[in-house]
């Protein structure tokens, strides 16, 4: 079974929107964690980003990608 792609987003982040749009266009399923709706998850994001509050952050298995780099 493949690991679920988890994407931390924020509605004021245009890069979050761009990543979500590209994932949807590619037909890639993902679980979105909107930090505006789930502020209690900021600590989990900060643990992944060495304390930074930056979005988007994508996590699949042990692979963490900070920022938007396009869908490859």
Protein architecture, described:
It is built from 2 helices and 4 strands. The protein has helices spanning 14-25, 42-48, and strands at 6-9, 31-34, 57-60, 63-66. Strand 1, helix 1 and strand 2 (31-34) form a beta-alpha-beta unit. The longest helix has 12 residues, at 14-25. It starts with 5 loop residues before the first strand and ends in a 6-residue tail after the last strand.
What topology emerges from the helices and strands here?
Blueprint: E1 6-9, H1 14-25, E2 31-34, H2 42-48, E3 57-60, E4 63-66
Parallel strand pairs: 1-2
Antiparallel strand pairs: 1-3, 3-4
Condensed summary:
This protein is an alpha+beta fold and 72 residues long. 26% of the residues lie in helices and 22% in strands.
Which terms summarize this structure?
alpha+beta, 2 helices, 22% strand, 72 residues, globular, four-stranded mixed β-sheet
Low-confidence stretches: none
Beta-strand content bin: 15-25%
Major beta sheet summary: 4 strands, mixed
Could you state the order of secondary-structure elements as H and E? EHEHEE
- Quick one: overall form? globular
Structural class call reads: alpha+beta
Widest sheet: strand ordering: 2-1-3-4
List the total number of helices. Answer: 2
**Average pLDDT taken over every residue:** 93
Q: How widely separated are the two ends?
A: 21 Å
Radius of gyration, in Å, reads: 11 Å
Count of DSSP strands: 4
Oligomerization category of the chains in this entry: single chain
State the share of residues found in helices, binned by percent: 25-40%
């Amino acid at each position: 079974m493949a690991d679920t792609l988890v994407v931390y987003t924020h509605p004021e982040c245009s890069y979050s929107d761009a990543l979500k749009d590209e994932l949807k266009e590619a037909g890639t399923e993902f679980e979105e964690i909107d930090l505006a709706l789930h502020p209690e998850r900021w600590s989990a994001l900060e643990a992944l980003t060495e304390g930074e509050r930056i979005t988007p952050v994508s996590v699949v298995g042990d692979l963490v990608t900070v920022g938007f780099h396009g869908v490859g």
